[in-house]
Design goal:
The structure holds two protein chains of two kinds. By secondary structure, chain A is mainly α. Chain A contains 14 helices and two strands. Helix content of chain B is 47%, strand content 12%. The longest helix of chain B has 24 residues. Chain B is globular. Chain B starts with a helix and ends with a helix. Classes of the chains: A mainly alpha, B alpha+beta. Chain A: InterPro entries: ABC_transporter_permease, MetI-like, MetI-like_sf.
Chain lengths: 324, 429
């Protein structure tokens, strides 16, 4: 755009305008118009091309695979929507769905509430060493997820785990953390909460900082308490940021994989009776671990995609309505 | 006129953008196949667990001037998905790839992914345990793998804990304690009593492995590869023996943190040791427990848990040299060296007779004559037909069900039901 200003054709001066010059000028104008109209597309093209290669193509390919009986290292044959019909009556798929939602609820709800609380604290003008606290709260997110899972796996061990040791002081019998649904869900969501609370806090904090200060000043003059300011100003103004955070958490929660996998010592079925096998793990089991059911795994992948879309939409509507 | 220029320019711009991006993706193309006869600068070897190749590979580099990169993966569970990815995408596989028995069976139906080694190496068919050599062949006749080791079974036990519980500690006396599995259970109960209620073995899945691989008939598949997991007497026998031992088990499933920590802490006093397990036991127990472990024979005669082959993926750029390297790593001398380094038991008949092997004593395990102990049990191994998805049925159907029973999540009947149901889905192929 600025290009057009600097490379504008020189004003025709001394030589009388010949046909050649006028055609050149016309071409210049044309270039100009093309530049203004189309170069923005060129500038954003790399993203779309890369997205097409690494995002869209795999999705289309997965959809194509899901219509086949596909052996990972062998043959495949077209079977239409058989994989999807099979999915509907697959007990383990529904089991994984329940687990995923269970862990998702246990991790997302407390996590967002805590993040909101922490962000509000960090937003106080009176707080000293603000930058330190803001950085510190983000630290867990920098730690690799595998390390987190391994450390938490140790903490939740039956024999030598820290939590069972602590429980023994209050007279509680050691808990077999990976033996029941509730305890394994609790252990896994504690990892997720530990890792992502700070991350969400920072995003919410950024949203809070964008709220004009004079609103609070005016409210304070009118005699509104901090609590009331939080409900009447912060929350409503934070709505777009909150929606964003909710959607992000939804996507992350539905794709939960590493934490439950490492919690179960790397066993893909997630517990002796699949107590904590998530959808992503089930997809991996069917698509990668079992060589000959890769097509079915692809169908699971698409099912997860559709579920994320539906849940995100649902959450979006829920948050938009409740925080109006 | 104007319209055409606009279109051409747009097309040119678009084309430029596309070439720019395709330039990014084109670098993975496979157009750098070496000329025939060219010596490779580097060969890659993929192994899992501990195969004892470090020194051998160094020697090979010295002898041939070909650099060898040894990529080790600790657990088979991490190793397999990587390998599957290499095969599915046609890229990334090592030139020489170690295949464990279960994996090998899984790959046999699609044998085209592997080089036929028969034309690439000399004829060694008479030099190895015959059944082991035969198992390296695919149904279409191609020789996929050269035999590396067998998982001949023994029992590793803690002398100091045995002594404290009032059990004999000398290895022949210990072996005499358990002529059969009943005797093993009794010894366990005695240990439990003498030690104040401590667990005897690591887990009942370890027991089931021990019984399964003694090979009394077909396991999950019959000879025609039909799944028979729910009716197979051999599986039922392993199930019943394993579940009967729940009262002497530490409930520490193999490879879990409870399990690897348990070696140091002494939460169990005995575990089943295929010879490749010796290195893992000593690594987990640490130098502090050196000399406290010993090796006795397994109840009910020999057995074969695991064991591997070396194969060359069809995608290797240097199949010939890779086959030569595999040949070198599996020859009699190398197998003895690997055994001394990390414990994988030779499959080469000459290596099995080698005095250096037979006379070898393992310092960590109280100088147990492991060469003699394992060498003798090799002769007792019965070849077992495992079938294509043996590993999946064992790991994702049988063992979870056993653990569910062991941890009290399901009673015996419920757990068996869980197993037979899962065996059908896991075993389908």
């Amino acid at each position: 755009m600025s290009l057009s200003a600097t490379t504008a054709p020189p004003s025709p001066a001394a030589p009388p305008p010949s046909r050649d010059v006028s055609s050149r000028r016309r071409r210049g104008r044309l270039l100009n118009r093309l530049d203004v109209k189309y170069s923005p597309y060129l500038y954003i093209a790399p993203f779309f091309l890369i997205f097409g290669t690494f995002g869209l193509y795999p999705m289309v390919r997965t959809a194509w695979m899901s219509l086949h009986d596909w052996d990972m290292i062998g043959d495949h044959s077209f079977i239409g929507f058989d994989n999807y019909t099979r999915l509907m009556s697959d007990e383990y798929f529904w089991n994984a769905l329940v687990n995923t939602f269970g862990i998702f609820a246990l991790s997302t709800i407390p996590q967002l509430l805590l993040a909101l609380f922490l962000a509000n604290l960090l937003n106080r003008t009176l707080l000293r060493a603000k930058t330190f606290f803001r950085m510190a709260i983000f630290m867990p997110n920098v730690v690799s997820v595998a390390a987190v899972a391994i450390v938490f796996g140790m903490l939740f061990q039956r024999e030598f785990g820290l939590f069972n040791w602590l429980l023994s002081f209050v007279g509680v019998d050691p808990v077999d953390w990976d033996g029941q649904r509730w305890s394994s869900w609790f252990a896994i969501s504690s990892m997720v909460n530990w890792r992502w609370t700070g991350y969400n806090t920072l995003i919410l904090l950024a949203g809070m900082q964008a709220i004009p200060k004079d609103l609070y000043e005016a409210a304070a003059i009118d005699g509104a308490s901090p609590w009331r300011q939080f409900w009447q100003i912060t929350l409503p103004m934070l709505k777009p940021t909150f929606i964003f955070v909710v959607i992000l958490s939804t996507i992350g929660g539905m794709q939960l994989f590493t934490e439950p996998l490492l919690f179960g010592n790397g066993n893909i079925i997630g517990g002796n009776q699949r107590e904590f096998q998530t959808l992503a793990m089930y997809m991996y089991e069917m698509g990668i671990v079992n060589l000959n059911t890769a097509g079915y795994g692809a169908a699971v992948a698409w099912a997860i995609f559709m579920i994320i879309v539906v849940v995100s939409l649902f959450n979006f509507l829920l948050v938009r309505r409740s925080a109006k | 006129m104007r319209l055409t220029t606009r279109r051409t320019r747009l097309a040119v711009a678009a084309l430029a953008a596309i070439t720019a991006v395709s330039g990014l993706t084109a670098c993975g193309k496979d157009d750098d196949k070496p000329a025939a006869g060219e010596k490779p600068a580097k060969l890659v070897v993929d192994t899992f667990g501990e195969m004892g190749y470090d020194e051998l590979v160094k020697q090979y580099e010295k002898d041939t001037g070909i650099k060898v990169e040894l990529r080790k993966t600790a657990q088979l569970g991490d190793y397999r998905p990587k390998l599957v990815r290499y095969l599915a995408t046609g890229k990334g596989a090592a030139d020489v790839t170690a295949l464990e028995e279960g994996i090998l069976n899984e790959f046999k139906p699609n044998a085209r992914n592997w080089e036929d080694l028969a034309p690439l190496v000399a004829d060694h068919s008479k030099e190895y345990l015959p059944w082991k050599w035969e198992l390296g062949k695919a149904p279409d006749g191609r020789l996929i793998g050269l035999p590396t080791d067998v998982g001949s079974l023994a029992v590793c036990y803690r002398k100091d804990l045995f002594e404290a519980a009032g059990l004999p500690t000398e290895r022949d006396q210990v072996s005499a304690l358990w002529q059969d599995w009943k005797g093993f259970h009794d010894a366990g109960l005695k240990y439990k009593q003498g030690s104040g209620g401590k667990a005897f073995i690591d887990s009942i899945t370890a027991v089931s492995n021990g019984v399964l691989f003694q090979g009394n008939g077909d396991l999950f598949y019959d000879k025609e590869d039909n799944i028979i997991a729910d009716t197979s007497p051999a599986v039922k026998n392993a199930w019943d023996t394993a579940t009967s031992m729940v009262d002497i088990s530490a409930k520490a499933s193999t490879w879990s943190p409870e399990w690897s920590g348990g070696f140091k802490q002494g939460t169990f006093a005995a575990t089943f040791c295929p010879s490749w397990m010796l290195g893992i036991v000593s690594d987990n127990s640490g130098p502090a427990n050196k000399g406290k472990w010993d090796v006795a024979s397994v109840p009910g005669g020999g057995g074969n848990w695991g064991g591997s082959w070396l194969a060359v993926p069809a995608q290797s750029k240097y199949p010939k040299e890779a086959a030569k390297l595999a040949e070198y790593l599996t020859n009699a001398k190398s197998q003895v060296e690997a055994f001394k380094a990390k414990g994988p038991l030779p499959t080469n008949l000459e290596a099995l007779k080698d005095p250096a092997f037979l006379g070898y004593t393992n310092e960590y395990f109280s100088n147990a004559p492991t060469g003699k102990i394992f060498g003798e049990s090799v002769a007792k191994i019965q070849p077992i037909h495992l079938g294509p998805k043996h590993q999946a049925v064992k790991e994702n159907a049988l063992e979870p069900a056993l653990r569910a029973f062991e941890n009290g999540q399901a009673d015996k009947a419920k757990a068996w039901e869980q197993f037979t149901k899962d065996a059908k889905t896991q075993g389908a192929f």
